[in-house]
Amino acid sequence: MALLLALLLAQAQAAPHPCMEDVKKLCPGVEAGGGRISACLQERAADLSEDCKTRVAQFREGAEACEADTKKLCPDSKPGNERNACMQQHKNEVSPACREFFWRMVQLRNDAQATMRACRPDAKKLCKDVKQGGGKVLQCQQQHRSELSPECGRLVP
Description:
Layout: H1 2-11, H2 18-26, H3 36-43, H4 50-73, H5 81-89, H6 96-126, H7 136-143, H8 150-153
């Protein structure tokens, strides 16, 4: 679930996600990083919205498709960048379901990174005093929507 939440937070600027409202509502003040938001949502799993529960279930289903491949191809890798790099090295050996899931996650990350790059100048200019984490920069950008550059304005939900 930690990977899911990291991707959700990274993707938050690219498109609204059903779990972002849950993060704001259930984990206010919890700073992103170190798995803190993931732990908070896991503790409050019963309180998650139905849309968020559905999205988490979809993610878990995809992640489970890769579990056997991960154990077989990258048994000693640590979760995160190390495991992703290992799976990338073995991309031609993974099952089709895992390959589809892996590439979907890579695309989400790439989309989120592109959005953050496009909006970074606006964030520095308009939200320079806002502490990152918990969607605060996104909220600031939404409050300054009329002042955003055209490129960033198209991407901020």
